[in-house]
Amino acid sequence: MDEEKQRRSASLQHLLRPPSNPAEHEGLQISDDMFGGSASSDDANSSSELSLSDDMLVVTGLEEEDSEEMGDEDEDRGESADDGGWAANIAHFDPPCFSDGEKVGPVRDISPNTQPIDFFHMLVPESLLSAIVQQTNRYAHKYQLKNGRDEEWRNVDLAELKAFMAIFMYTSIVHGIFSEDITTVWEDNSITYNPVIASIMTQRRFQHIMQYFHVVSSSAQQQSDSLRKIRPFLEAVQNSFRNEFKTAQTHVVHEPPLEEEPSVWSPRLERKRRKKKRFNLFVRQCTATGFISQIYIHVKDKNDNQTLHEKGYSIARALCSDLINSGRNHIIFCEPLHTSLRLFRELESRNIYGCGVITDAKHSDCDGLPASVLAKPPASMRKYNSIVRTKGRYSSMVWNSPRIPFRLLTNAFSPAAQGKLVVKKNRRPDEELPCPEAVQAYQNHIKYIDKYNEKFSWYIISYKPNKTWQQLFWTVLSLAMNNSYIMYKMSPAYAHSQLSRNNFGADLLRAMAGPYYQEVPAWGEDISDPED
């Protein structure tokens, strides 16, 4: 074991566990306090640990019935099955070395005095908002030519549009108490009433802007494109994500959770049937920082004839498109929907490596994988042991965890290298479980992203309009807000002000509202006119 550790480069250890020195990778310091919460005992230096009760091991990406779906086949099938050219020969190799040694974080040189609004405009430039102003006024004019003049309407300007957006941003820092019913901000008999937000603009003016709100000119887009009403905006924001932030080597392709149900229900919501979400949002997310680099939106369509496996492949391929031929040796961790030998082979030809979970043939593309790994492990196989089959650099393995078999496909980690998972048990000493190195790496990175997304779901704009393109617009804006906070957290500005996620959002809201924002006087404060 000592010889193996000497052979492995120290620069590759970040693939298995976070560095002990925070200066080596500042992104990992976002882990527990990434959104201003209190620090927990499960800190960045224990990302390969699992918190469990008794003997239960929960493995990400697998379902409990997975082992049952394999059927009551011959217990010795793992040794006698035809594996289609996969062999039991195991050879050691080092993980791909990250060829980009630049520091992870914001690309620009940022001064300590940079404000939250500046970080936000790095990702959503004011020029993009000015285009929205133009399209909103143009649509209002076009609509009134067709349907009659609206005497109450006046054109919106950039400052008022930003104040309008600030009201939506407010719904992202009050933890999901709004849904379709955002107008309760102005109802003084409602628990969601906020006099400060209500004073930004009148409810009538807010509804007027909402009526004519438009992001792009849909007439200039292809009518067959389901995202035509936000396509240019989406592409512009994604370009900012890629150009303004330098990510680490490892990424995960997955579907992040989006908060669906509000925490507080109003009577009118109980009478109104909520519209189902017509889209799925997939992202490629840096596992060291939580920064979302790429977005893929799949709009549900009844006429879509793609199989689940084809969707998983095309989504993952699209999310990795900007990494193709970069020559940086990225590693992509995949959920069962996206894991396939076909995808990994194509990505490897473009200097991208993969590591993904395999479940059953329904949820994962098992085409070309060895039958001995997909089959139910033999009864003679002990817990924490593995069956590994290799074909060139690819290894397909099943690790017999305490609960259910854990199956992986990878070309990024050596099948000969061993890792460990530290199981934290209640009322008993912690236990170290031996496992393949790929299992440890997968758990390490997926656990960090799960922790990030658990907190992220609280900071998404919770207003859910009926129009799908508007839902998408505010969701993408939520991603930009969280990405801008990560950029702030990894810049000298954080050492200067150390804002929590809530305070960062509040400062951003005030700056967006600009002259429209006025604090309500404190209780007992003299509110008389000073000129009287």
From TrEMBL:
Gene: LOC109483767
Biased composition (Low complexity): 38-55
Protein name (Swiss-Prot/TrEMBL): PiggyBac transposable element-derived protein 5-like
Region ranges (Disordered): 1-86
GO MF term list: transposase activity
Residues that span the membrane, as ranges: none
Pfam families linked to this entry: DDE_Tnp_1_7 (PF13843)
Source species, domain of life: Eukaryota
